[in-house]
Amino acid sequence: MQDFVQHIINGISLGSIYALIALGYTMVYGILKMINFAHSDVYMVGAFGAYYIARAFGIEAQPGIGSLAILLVSSMIACSILGLAIERFAYRPLRNSPKLNILITAIGVSLFLEYSGQAVFGADPKVFPEVMTDHTLATIFGVDLKSFDLTVLGVSILAMLGLEFLIYKTKLGKAMRAVSANASVASMLGMNPDRIIAFTFVVGSALAGIGSVLVGMKYPKIDPLMGMMIGMKAFVAAVLGGIGNVGGAVLGALIMGLSEEMVVAYFSSTYRDALAFGILIVILIFRPAGLLGKYSVEKV
Amino acid sequence: MKAFKNPLIALLAMGALALALEFGFNAFFQLMAMFILVNCLMSMSLNLVNGYTGQFSLGHAGFMAVGAYAAAYGSSHVHIFPEPFLMGNYVITTLLAGALAAFAGLLVGLPSLRLKGDYLAIVTLGFGEIVRVALLNMDFLGGPRGYSGIPSYGNFISGFLFASFWVLLCFFTIWRLMGSSHGRGFLSVREDEIAAEAMGINTTRMKVKAFVLSSFFAGVAGAIFAHITSYISPSSFTFLQSVNAVIMVVLGGMGSMTGSLVAAVIVTILPEALRPLQDLTGIDLRMVIYSLALILMMILRPKGLFGAMEFGDVWRKYVKRSS
C-alpha cells in the first residue's frame, strides 16, 4: 500500500512534467493545426541552456530555490527565443502550404536541432548541475514526500495557473483564442495573426523550458537526443486529453505519468516506451478526438 | 528510354550493370550498389503511400524490421531446396517476409487509416517504435544483441540480380497499378478525400490497400537488407531509417516513381560523399545538412526534384528541348 501511494506520487510528479511539455504541443496545434515536432528539441535546448548558464555563473556551488529560479528564467528565455526563431524562419514561410509540407518541415527542424545539438554540445551525456538538494521533507504513514517531487509539482502548478490566467483573463489570451477559432475573422477584427502565433510559440516554448529544468533537476543526465522520447510521450498525452484543449493536455499528461510509473513498478521497465504508443493507438481507435476533445464535422 | 519500359529488357540492363560492377569496381562500391537497391525499394514503396495516396507514414522502418527479421529467421531455419538451388529458398523467405510485413501493415492500417494526416504520422511512428521495443525483448531473435549469421547470397552478381528482380517487380507493380482503376482511386484519395467519397470510392479501403502493398515491399527491402549485411539488430531500424525513407520520397518528388529511384541513389551516396567533410571538421555534419536540406526543400521547392513528373517527362521537357 505504501509502495502504491509512493508510485502515485512519483507518477503525478512525472505527469506534471509531461503536462508542461504537452501544453506546448496542444497550444500550437490549437492555433495552427500542426504538430510541432521540433517542440521536444526546444525542450532539449532549454536544458542545455540552463546547463551552460549554471556553469557560467557557478550556480552548482549553491543549490537552493534561488538558483532554481535563475535557471528556470534563463531556460525560459532561451527556449522562447528559439521557439520564436523556428516559427519565423521555418513555419511562417509555409503558412499557406499543404499540411504535409508543414509536417515534413517540422520533422526537418526537429532533426536539425537534434543533430546540430550533437555537433555543438557533443553527443555524450552531460550531468546537469545540482540545483537543489533532494531530501525527504516529511514521512506520512511510511510514504516519503521528497522535496524534488514537491518542487516539480509546485512549479508546474504555478506555471499552469499562469497559463490559465494568460489565456482566459488577459487581452492577449483572448486574441489567442480568437485566432485559434478562426484566424481570418480574427485578422478582420484587428488582430495580427502572425504576431499572435509567434506569441503562442513563445509561451509554449517557455513552458518547455520550465519542464527541461525540472527534468534536469530530477533526472540529472542531459544529451542532445533527450527530447525525442519525452516529446513523443508528451504528444501522446496531448492527444489523449484531446489535442488543442489546454485542460485535456494536463489530464492526459497525468494519466500518462501515472500509467507509466505503474507499468515500470508492477510490470517491466523495458515496455515503458511502448506503452505510450499503445495508449495512443487505443485512444485513436476508440476516441480519436481525445478524452476532452470535441468531434468536428468536416464541411465542404 | 522507351525500351526500359519492358521489364525483361530492364532486368537485362541490370544484369549488364551487375557485370560492370563485378569487374570494374571494388567491394565497397558493390556494397553501395546493394544498399541503393534496398533504398530504391524503400522509397518506391513509401512513395505509394506518401506520394500517390497522400497519406503520411513515418514508420516504414518498422515494416522493414518485420521483413528483415522474418527473412533472417526463415533463411536460417527453412531449407526446402538443396545446395545448388539456394535462391529458391531466398525467394520463399523473401515472399514470407513481405507477407508478414504486409500483415503487419494490415493490422496497423485498418484502425489508423481512418484517421487523417498528422495522426497517421504519429501512429505509424509509434508502430515503428513498438516493433523496435518488441524486437529488443524477443530472445529467440537475439534481443538487443541482434541476429547474426544470416546466410548471404553467395557472390555479388547473384545478390545484385536477386535484389534487382525485386526492385523491378516493385517498380512495375506500382507503375502498372497506377494506371489501373485502383491507382486512380489512390490518386483521388490524395486529391480530395471528400470528393472521392462522393464518387463512391471507399477511401479507407483504398488507403489500406496502398498501405498493405507498401508494407509488403518494405518487408522485401528488409529481407534483402538482412541478407546483404548478414547481421541485423533492432538499432538498424530506428526512427532515423523511417525519416530516411521519407527524405527520399520528398526529395524525389511525391508521386514520381523515377524520382524516388533517383533520390534513393542520391540519399545513399550522399553520406559517403560527405565523408571528407566530416574528416575535415571532425564532427558529424551529415544529418545537419540532411535536415537543413529538408527544410529548405520544403520552403523553396516543395515538389521535390521531379515533382509529379517521371524521368521521361523531365528529359523531354528540360534536356531535349535545350539541345
Provide a concise account of the structure shown.
The complex is a heterodimer of chains A (300) and B (323). Chain A has 11 helices and 4 strands, in the order ααααβββααααβααα.
List keywords for this structure.
heterodimer, A: 300 residues, mainly alpha, two-stranded antiparallel ribbon, globular, B: 323 residues, two-stranded antiparallel sheet, 14 helices
> What structural class results from the helix and strand content of chain B?
mainly alpha
Q: Describe the largest sheet of chain A.
A: 2 strands, antiparallel
Unreliable segments of 5+ consecutive residues of chain A: none
Strand fraction band of chain A? under 5%
Instruction: Provide the structure class of chain A.
Output: mainly alpha
Determine the mean pLDDT of chain A.
84
Can you tell me the number of structural domains of chain B?
1
Q: Helical element count of chain A?
A: 11
What composes the largest sheet of chain B? 2 strands, antiparallel
What does this structure look like?
- The complex is a heterodimer of chains A (300) and B (323).
- Chain A is mostly helical.
- Chain A has one domain (2-226).
- Chain A has 11 helices and 4 strands; from the N terminus they run H-H-H-H-E-E-E-H-H-H-H-E-H-H-H.
- In chain A, strands 1-4 form a two-stranded antiparallel ribbon.
- With 323 residues, chain B is mostly helical.
- In chain B, 75% of the residues lie in helices and 1% in strands.
- Chain B has a two-stranded antiparallel ribbon with strand order 1-2.
- Chain B is globular.
- The two termini of chain B are 17 Å apart.
- Chain A binds chain B through residues 34-35, 90, 93-94, 97-105, 107-112, 114-116, 118-119, 228, 232, 235-236, 239, 270-271, 273-274, 276-278, 280-281, 284-285, 288, 298, 300, and chain B through 50, 54, 56, 58, 111-112, 114-115, 117-119, 121-123, 125-127, 129-130, 133-134, 136-137, 194, 239, 243, 246, 250, 254, 283-285, 287-288, 290-292, 294-295, 298-299, 302.
